[in-house]
């Protein structure tokens, strides 16, 4: 079997430090060199199929694993915040309910006066009837 030798050329260009950091991060995540990442990016841009599908699949699986971990951390954070909110709400309700109620003022009516009031309606009704 004959191996085909594809000569390679070196291409030099200047990029921003921000791009360099991003390329290095992608390379580290995919366990590749920065040169391989740039080469794959150019191949994708040119519509070439030189990018190995299994490499891309592994990279995506790695990214999904990272996203799952981040989601788990977010869920934990949300749960803790909900618990703190519930505790704060309970504390507020306790503080609101723990103040003693104001005493209800007792009527200043003499009990003998109450007895007179109870009898009074009958007397009033008889006074207004016709024919008496």
Short summary of the structure?
With 132 residues, this protein is mainly α. Helices cover 67% and strands 0% of the residues. It is rod-shaped, with a radius of gyration of 43 Å.
Please, could you describe this protein's structure?
The protein is built from four helices and no strands. The protein is mostly helical and 132 residues long. Among the domains are: 43 residues, Arc Repressor Mutant; 45 residues. 2% of the residues are buried. The mean pLDDT is 77.
Give the topology:
Elements: H1 17-29, H2 34-46, H3 53-97, H4 111-128
Helix pairs in contact: 1-2
Which value, in Å, is the CA radius of gyration? Answer: 43 Å
Poorly predicted ranges (pLDDT <50, ≥5 residues)?
A: none
- Helical/strand content category: mainly alpha
Tell how many strands the DSSP assignment holds. 0
Task: Spell out the helices and strands N to C.
Answer: HHHH
Share of β-strand residues: under 5%
How far apart the termini lie comes to 136 Å
Q: Please outline the major beta sheet.
A: none
Number of helices: 4
Kindly state the mean pLDDT as a whole number? 77
Shape, principal axes of CA atoms: rod-shaped
- Roughly how much helix do the residues carry, as a percent range? 55-70%
